[in-house]
Amino acid sequence: MDAEDAALLAAVRDGSQQAFNLLVDRHQQAVRVFLRRLVGANDADDVAQETFLALWTQARMFRGGSPVRTWLLGIAWRKAKDTQRSWFRRRRRDQAWHESRDDHEEFSADMQRAMEQAMASLSLDQRAAVTLCLAFGLSHVEASATMNLPLGTVKSHVARGREKLHALLGDE
Q: Which end of the chain is more exposed for a tag (fewer CB within 10 A), N or C?
């Protein structure tokens, strides 16, 4: 698939809308799942759209040192970082609302909600590293390239994130 993706990206550089659509079709699910885990379901589609707009406008910047998917996830990561400030404001507002709710409502949430809350407790860097390595199966080296962080930092984020998730969720 990497050779096909590279050929499609070359066609996008030449202005092929069809090649662009094929690349979006191939990678949109991975980008959207990654972004949902970083910025939440409400903002994931908007940030994904920005990511694919960047694919169209910045196709010439791809140097081929990594798979196209890794490059796209890197763009998505940077777009998520760009929206971090407004996300934190909204998170504080939402957290205040949740704290005002009855405690019994919080404990009746299913495992999906528990996982979302546990992931939200991680820093943005930890969420990204955990998602890339544990959910997407990227190596630490690939995650390091995607996030543009040193390899040791990514390994620390994964380890600390995993420990915190385990502490919050237990063996489930």
A: C
More confident residue, 114 or 67: 67
**Consecutive H or E run containing 37:** helix 17-39
Rounded to whole angstroms, the Cα distance separating 3 from 169 reads 40
CATH architecture classification, 1-91: Orthogonal Bundle (1.10)
Domain boundaries, the chain: 1-91, 101-172
Q: Who contacts 66 (Cβ-Cβ below 8 Å, separation ≥6)?
A: 74, 142, 145, 146
The predicted model scores a pTM of 0.60
Q: What topology is assigned to 101-172 in CATH? A: Arc Repressor Mutant, subunit A (1.10.10)
DSSP 70-139: HHHHHHHHHHHHHTHHHHHHHHHHHHHHHHHS-HHHHHT--HHHHHHHHHHTS-HHHHHHHIIIIIS---
